[in-house]
Fold these 2 entries.
Entry 1:
Amino acid sequence: MANTADIVIVGGGVHGASTAWHLAKRGAGKIILIEKEGIAAGASGWSSAIVRMHYTLESLTRVAMYGREMFGDWKNIVGVGESGFRQVGFLILFATAEVPHAREVIAMQQRLGINARMITPGEVGDIEPRLVRDDVTAGAWEPNSGHADGSTVANSFISAARDLGVDVRIGPEVLAMTSEGSRVTGVAMSDGVISAETVIVEAGFRTSDLLAEYGVDLPITPVRHAITVVERTPDFGGIHPIVSDRIAETYFRPEAGSLTLIGEHDPMKGPVDEDVEAVKPAELNEQVSQLERFAARFPGQDSASLVRGYTGVYDCSPDFMPAFGRVQALDGLFVGAGFSGHGFKLSPGVGKILSDLVIDGSTDLIDVQPFRVERFAEGDLLGAEDGYMNRSLA
Ligand SMILES: Cc1cc2nc3c(=O)[nH]c(=O)nc-3n(C[C@H](O)[C@H](O)[C@H](O)COP(=O)(O)OP(=O)(O)OC[C@H]3O[C@@H](n4cnc5c(N)ncnc54)[C@H](O)[C@@H]3O)c2cc1C
């Protein structure tokens, strides 16, 4: 097995997989991707995979738009596998305090050409008549949004990347980067060494440890989130859109058949758990609480059946925004991590950005400087003054 490459990617979640495909598509040379557990074994495999474009930052909105286009036209753009995208629409319910912020976001989205609009509680009822709307001041509606599937996307990117010659190795763990002077020279793994001029670390929570050795401070808090799957009652009727209930801090996402996924908004809701590789069910009291919130919005659904409850880990950064781009501490080192529970939809765009940065030294998608990993050590956090932005809508 060859142990030299031009580029090594650490991590086989949606981000590593997307970056591998984007680089290979542009003919970036010999690429090896190392994944210690399995493709999409981390957060990507547990993701609710909601694809919306409601972001406070215009830059992340643009990244999300890139993803929406790719998920929705996977066959033509990637050409291998599928994304599992279903355009069910994304409906947000607001209480009064958030409405001014939401209006600003919608105005920015419309400027960018996104089909999104503020709506009255009455219009919320036109879109989803089964919803309780007494406490809703306003809504926002993105008809072209929906959800895809994390495992399907990661595996499809990997298959497409393999077809383009990427060497995907499942099993070895990257223990550290190797370096000479101020340059990265490759990675040391549990079963050997690979030399490479470029290393891209997209290893979720584990990214922090790999960077720490080079004095890079990427503080990630691993927060284990519960998801409850319920089967709606037979009289419920047809599918509902994705409902982002900002008032009850909960989201409801339709799953196949008559199932609904219920998850939490607050990225810090759940136990901190560094044992991120473990597979753990959701607690019964968490499932009951989530079902109660679903039934409070959709009357009659207190009789919905609990189907299963599972957990997945958010890699929360201090400002709940990701870090991606070049790492200044070591030439040739790049990072993409700290996605804080909303990174699925960003994975196509961040893969493009990282491939542009590696190949061209710059990207035309957005200004990446605000997302530099060094901002944490500098205390220059994104949107520190804006509470709305910091609370994930994922
Ligand atoms: C329950 C849940 C619901 C979510 N819902 C949404 C949503 O609706 N919409 C949205 O946009 N986002 C959502 N997210 C967030 C999204 O899923 C993540 O941001 C995204 O999957 C992160 O992908 P990743 O590739 O960075 O990380 P991961 O998927 O965690 O992949 C990192 C990989 O690196 C590997 N690795 C780690 N260390 C090493 C090492 N030393 N050597 C080799 N391999 C290593 C791991 O095994 C892992 O497979 C959700 C997340 C969870 C948990």
Entry 2:
Amino acid sequence: MRYRHWGIALLLLLVAPAVSGDPAPSRQAELETLLYQDCGSCHGMTLRGGLGPSLLPERMARYDVTALIGIILHGIPGTAMPPWSELLTRQDAAWLAEQLKKDAPPR
Ligand code: HEC
């Protein structure tokens, strides 16, 4: 019984960082690169629009973070906007969505 509780406590410790808060700083750096290189290949290298519309905060104001997470993970069916759920976790998408809502997205 004692050992079982330790097991559960250990499990929670391992799982907690994955389900709450921001991605690790190293992952944030990777996501920043992805935002400007991969997303930027369609949305413009400065995110001001290209094949896809601008991703700057003025335009992102129309979406809440949850809606942006959905767009990023699932794409927009019937358009060139692809789903990213194979490459990005929900936490990754949430972090990106929050960056897009900020006045100055990271560069
Ligand atoms: C292959 C090209 C392509 C790539 C890569 C791409 N997008 Fe898109 N995205 C589009 C297109 C095209 C649209 C507009 C779809 C439509 O007509 O509604 C769009 C729409 C969006 C929208 C909704 C914008 C709006 O104002 O309606 C968001 C948010 C978005 N993309 C975020 C991202 C993010 C974040 C990434 C990188 C993780 C990404 N996109 C990568 C092509 C792309």
